[in-house]
Amino acid sequence: MIERKIQNKIVNALKNFRVVIVSGPRQAGKTTLVKAIAKELGLSYYTFDDSEILVTAQNHPKDFIKFISKNRSAIDEVQYLPEIIPAIKMVVDEKNKRGMFLLTGSSDIQRMSSVKESLVGRMVGLELYPLSTVEIEQRETNIIDLLFSDDIFLLDLSVYNGSIEYLTEKLLEGGYPEIIGFDEENRRMWYDAYVEYRIIKDAKDFESINANKAQSITMLLKLLATQVSSLISFNRLSKKLKIADKTVAKYISILEAMYIVKLIEPYFNNRGNRLTKAKKVHFIDTGLVANLLHADRSILVNKGEIYGNLVESFVFTELLKQSTFSKNRVSIYHYRDTKQREVDFVLELANGDIVGIEVKSGNTIKAQDTKGMVSLAEHAKEKFLSVFP
Length: 389
Fold this sequence. Notes:
Rossmann fold; four-stranded mixed sheet; 17 helices
C-alpha cells in the first residue's frame, strides 16, 4: 500500500470530531485507507457495498446505528444510504464522544442538505483524490507549503521536470492506485470500464437516467475532455449536445459531485464577481482525459494543443491533491482580465495573499508570457506574494 499523505490528518480529526467524512472519486483508495485506519485505531468496519448490510440499515436505520455505535465504527460508501445520517446524529448527540464514526462516500455527500443540516457542528469533511506524484514517488515535498514559505528554493522540481517521455507517461497514467504500473492497453480497458460501469452507473444515484440521458452524459464527458484547461460555455455545450443549458449545468454539477470534473472560478479582488465570470474546466485525473480523447503516447510526444492542455491540467491535479495535505488552507482560481491576459492558477490563502502559477509545456518563456502575471500583480497589489513559472 502506498502511503497516503492525508492519513495522519484523518486520524487527528477523529481525535477532535465526533464524525469524520472522507469523500472522493471512485477507486481513489478510500476503502483501502479507511480499512488501514480502522485497523490502526480499532474501529469496526462496515460497507454499504455489502447488500446484506445495506438492506439491514435501510430497514432498521436507528437500530443498526445504535448497535454498531457500541464500538467506534467506519461506514464505507455511505452515499448509498443518506437516510442513515439522522440516525447517526441521534447517537452522536446522545453519546457525545469524539471519533465515533468515520464515513466515506464516492460523491460529495457534504453537499446533501440532510448531511449539512444533521451533522453541522458535529463533523469535519476531508477529501481523498487519486494518488499525487509526490505520493507515487514517495516525496516529502508539498509544493503549496513551499510556495507560501521562505524556503521556496528548497522546492525539488525534478519530479515535475523530467523528459517529455517521462511527463507523457505521467499524463497517461493518472493517479488511480489500481492502475499504477499498468501497460497502455490494460490502462485503456480500465478507463473504458470506469466510464461505463462507474461514472454512468453512479450518475443514476443523482437522477433517473435512461439510455438517452446516459448517452448525453457520455458525450458531455468527451466534449469536456476536448475543452480541458479552457473556459467553459454552457450555451455552446448545449448546442452541440442539443439539450437545454440548464440540463448541461445539471449534468456538470453531477460530474463535479462525483469528483470527475472541477470548475475553477476566476480570481477577483471583489469576491462577489467570481460567480458572474467564466470558469475553467479541469478533470480530476489526466489519464481519464487522455483516454476520452484517445490520446496515446505517440500523439502526446508530438505535443501540440492536447499536450499543453493536459500538462496544465496535470499541474492542477497536483495542486488540488497536495492542497488536501498542505499546512496552508488555499483556494485555487484562474485569472483573466478584460484584455484577455491570463494566469493559469492563482493560489489564495484565507488572508487574501496569493501566488500566481503559469504553466508552460515548451522549453522557452517569451516576454509576452509574463503579461498575465504583470496584470495579476497590478490587480492584487500588496496581496501578490510571488510568481511561479
